[in-house]
Amino acid sequence: MSSESKYKVVFVRHGQSEWNLKNIFTGWHDIPLSEQGHQEATLAGQILKQKGYSFDLAITSVLQRSIQTFNHIAEELQIHHIPIIKSWRLNERHYGSLQGLNKSETAALHGEAQVKIWRRSYDVRPPEMSIDHPDYPGKDSRYKHIPPSSLPKGECLKDTVERVLPFWTDTICKAIIEGQKVIVSAHGNSLRAIVKYLDKMTDEQIMELDIPTGVPLVYELDENLLPVKHYYLISQEELEKKMQEVKNQGKAQQN
Length: 255
Ligand SMILES: O=C(O)[C@@H](CO)OP(=O)(O)O
Hints:
Layout: E1 7-13, H1 18-21, H2 35-50, E2 57-60, H3 64-77, E3 84-86, H4 103-110, H5 112-120, H6 157-177, E4 182-186, H7 188-198, H8 203-207, E5 217-221, E6 227-232, H9 236-248
Helix pairs in contact: 2-3, 4-5, 6-7
The protein binds 2-phosphoglyceric acid.
2-phosphoglyceric acid binds at residues 20, 25-27, 92, 95, 119, 188-189, 246, 249.
């Protein structure tokens, strides 16, 4: 089995959004970056520039926080000209009727253990969103090409894996094999879906993985697109701090 690195792909979770800041379940709700999120995305671009990265193709979800994040990176790297593929398949995990609720208040009401199950279990779905909910994707013209039966009303990570992986294989892997340098600007849980697949993580292992906002994550892949190694482009200390911040969002009391 080859373990030589042949390709690199860079993932980045969008910078902090307005709803990350307010600690609200977000999912497919289309909320912009916060001031801190804009700064994190700019910093991600500066780090990539400083380390000599450049890209031929950008891939984002159809949610503005991922697109804004790439735009900051494009600004820093001066790569506004490269093609961007935007796909709903990279959207955040759909959080069902939890979307719009504060995570700490939900933990105070239902318990931290239940919130951890909703946030991080592999195959337990959050409560379903009704089709009357203002955020129901069937009301949004950007999803009109998707058959209603494929539109989520609330996903567990397993559901997200099932919609992300065909896109990973058919579009992202294809571009990587063609020799394109690809950056993927997406979301905490759509990236957890890809990472679980790449690193063959168990359903238990993935529960403990949190992806911080606005930090480039490099995967080196062999000729068969199997991972050789991966690393974040910030110090271990900063990384642990940022990962812990994500974990803490499910606590009834912050701090
Ligand atoms: O609210 C969400 O959509 C996600 C990402 O921000 O949160 P969590 O980390 O709780 O899965």
